Fold these 2 entries.
Entry 1:
Amino acid sequence: FLDQAKGNLSEGAGELCRTALRDLQQPDGVGHGHPYREVPPEGTIGWYHDLVRRLGEHHPDLVPKAETALEAIVGFRDWLHESGMNAPAGIGQENYNWYLANVLYMPFTMEDIGTIGDRELQRSWAFLELERNKNRDLPRLEPAASAEDYQRRIREADEQVRRFIVEEDILTIPEYVGEFGHNVPWIERPGERRNFWEEIQYRDPRPDHVHAVIPGHRFDMLLKEHDTRPIRGPYYDSGRIEGWALYLEEMFLQAGLLDDLPRTKELFYIFQIARAARNRVEVGLHSNEFTIQDAVRHLVERTPMMDDNVARVDAEIYLREPGYGISYQMGKIQIDQLLADRAIQLGDRFNLKEFHDQFLAAGMIPISLIRWQMTGLDDELRHFWYEGED
């Protein structure tokens, strides 16, 4: 594969090349998908050294193969150093707008996303400061003091969220839904700053719990596992997945989950700020107005508690995967639109639980298609499929 890459990357993007070199040689500081190590290995190459060492302890017959892979990766690193890649990394406005309309079925342009993202960022900051002022005489939330304290907070959060869903008729929890665990592991970082997710989660697990556990990603994916439809069952749409998860954060906040937890409301607004700031970052990267470092600076300057490591990892994802960074905010806005459309259609017959159940039952297809199915409104689809026709 690496030999093929050397032939295929004849016009490699300079920003992606620099990102690859960094990730090959330095830890990401976040640990996405990595096992825990008290001292994280130095990038991908370091993880292969770690693998070779551990294989020597229990699978020595595999060591030669691992060493061959390590040698190939080091050679690829050296080739990248000498490659001189400097092509633009962003796909450009025209390609980006085509991708939004023809692949993601999102009714936005790159310009729309920048403007909407900026407005959402401003709105979220305003709500955060209003909440902080209201809570000014209350004690601040402190991070968990230990792994045991953290686990206790997770259990309390899970119990409250599940109870609230049932008592307030938020949505249906099928009988096969059990325990899910949590999304952010407990890591002690002596002499090192906690990352953004840890700063939030260790104070109160609820923001990430509703987003990534129940009724967010883990709950959502379990429903998907039980979906046997041949097209909708295996289909994934990032706007539907991440839009739903972000929608849940504000939905629970407005529905009253946090009425007795005013300081936790601040954390929810900080999460909103983080997702809003991503929109300008993604369009900046794909219009080639931002470098990765510009993106990191933008996120850190505009998001409370944000650190360079999380900001950089996020920016790398948005550059590699157009449409992913904006899927949170734009997907959430589409769900807001769908809820309003349905409430207007049904009037007094509108029921929030039925709305959520119908939305989830539609599967993980683009939200514009779910809107068409639930409301019969085809104004967005006419634009996607029959542009230029009456």
Entry 2:
Amino acid sequence: MIKLIKNLYYCKKILNLSTEDPDPKDWVSDIKVKDSHLPKNFSRRDSTVPVKNQGNIGSCVGHSGRVICGDANIFQKEEPSPMWIYKMGKKHDQWKGENYSGTSIRGAANSLIKEGCCFESFWPYEDNESSKPKEGAALDASYKKISSYKAIPCDNIDQIKTVLMDRPLWYGYMVHKDFFSLGINGVIDTDKYLSSEKAGGHAVALIGWKYINNKLYWEFQNSWGRWFGNSGYFFMEHRLFRSVIINSIGPYYLDFKDGYFNPGDDPDLDPEDPIIPDPEDPIIPDPEEPDSDKDSWLTPKVTWIVFFIMLGVILFFYTFSYISNNFFTVPEAPYIDDQGNVDWDKKLEYEIK
């Protein structure tokens, strides 16, 4: 029943990320990997911006871009505007005009190079394609540009992990209909997913990884609210990860001149040797490995349990009330009239009988 409800709700999400072939002009990253800095499990869930809901417009690129940019040092005081990223993506993507729903990750990345991204306060998110920015949004965005974006091939697993320990990655993939009814553990069943019909392209933020039954699963932050999957997150097996990707040969990462915020220090890190050897990037220590088993008590699983308990209590009292009214009706006394007055002579006669 729950899966049916989820399917009916999430199947209405607009999935219109471009399904164009990868662009050979994309700059493919060449990152030096340090095996000693790659833990078995890793997640940025506690450091990224909170999960939000894109609503009923095709703004997944804007919302996933919000997560990618949100970990940059320059956005620690205020979140980036997903609407700005989405709308500017249309302006700089490969299609003429902007009178359509959806855009591409590449278009949004190009817009971040040329125009930057404003704070959320300059263009608050609305579930409306006709939304407009406030005065000063373009000027504010011009102070927060990226220097470049790069793609990491899907099979360069250690390179992807190395960058993830420093910043989130941008990923576009083909959604299949099995995705809509994903369970509360957030783990995609690869075979069921691939055997279901295709639904459309979607953009999400890659934020970590973990091993389940000795298989590598990548962790993603979605933009369909906290009721989806595992509190708004989901896990995809590496085999599926590389087979459903669209638009690119692998996930993208962005270069901000001011670097990225990373909580915690790694005492074993050599401060003279950064994780990503980019001369424009600051030397940032590795974050401590978070405890992926800890989570808020208010999970969708707990919420559903509380909901069904309350529903059961309501049904019990309704049933009890119905039975009481129909089977335990007290007969009216013959010595009391319609106004509630007692005829004491009739009462005495009734009691004697």
